[in-house]
Amino acid sequence: MSPIVSITNLSKTYGSGFRALKNVSLDIQPGEILALLGPNGAGKTTLISIICGIVNASGGSVTVDGYDIRRDYRQTRSRIGLVPQELSLGAFEKVWHTLCFSRGLFGKPPNPAYIEQVLKDLTLWDKRNNMLMMLSGGMKRRVLIGKALAHEPMVLFLDEPTAGVDVELRQEMWALVRRLRASGVTIILTTHYIEEAEAIADRVGVINQGELLLVDDKDALMHKLGKRQLVIELETPLTTLPGELAAWKLELSEGGDKLAYTYDPHKAHTGIHELLQALADNGLVIKDVQTTQTSLEEIFVKLVKGKDEKR
Description:
Structural class: alpha/beta
Radius of gyration: 25 Å
Number of strands: 14
CATH architecture of the largest domain: 3-Layer(aba) Sandwich
Mean pLDDT: 87
Oligomer: single chain
Largest sheet: 6 strands, mixed
Number of domains: 2
Distance between the termini: 37 Å
CATH superfamily of the largest domain: P-loop containing nucleotide triphosphate hydrolases
CATH class of the largest domain: Alpha Beta
Order of helices and strands: EEEHEEHEHHHEHEHEEHEEEHEH
Low-confidence stretches: none
CATH topology of the largest domain: Rossmann fold
């Protein structure tokens, strides 16, 4: 299957000399949800802005559905919907007219039934005749999504889509994103919320200081870079670890009452059974046992920190 978006050696250097993107290459497959994670200034918005034709690249190329974003601007832009971070909407426009106008900008014929469905999907149907100035911040963000969907794009870019919205609305937006993907729309979102990527993304890309550090299937990333720990609480604290337990490379807590054993849950032999037997053989009484799994947030922090330390 050919990628719906193909990015090759994309770079951007501003007049000040600042390199916002450094030879970024990435293929995005039709119908997937890709989450781009990165701190402020990492290059996420610059990347999206170049693909959407808002910012010119300094080098490299991008195609959307096989069309080059420079040579075939009209074809690529008509295939893309963009939801920006900023809530830039006219105060006195009505919701219904805003979506219809956006659709017309792309040369699409009127389709009231489609606009109605979009508003219903965004829980905005009862606000269709309201002026934008009367809406809450969360509703305005939904209107931005509606504008981006008005011309029926194949690819939807969401730049920090749930920034500043409450938890309930965030969950609703996640559900909307899943429905859009189910309808065939390819979705690329940037986010500061690690749980957002963990909840809805198929693949995760980590970008920092203009470089794409990695792109991988979310579950595969958790498998390769995540770890699981067995945390054993002891009845009687230790001052030092018995030498017989050295093979398990245990971590002893400051209070001496907990042991942490890191293992790969995907291996056939984890060594847990032998460890528990060794603890018993050394007269250590177990009070409690828990397992913990590395989160995507911990993986992200580790990757970004590791890259920064190499500079």
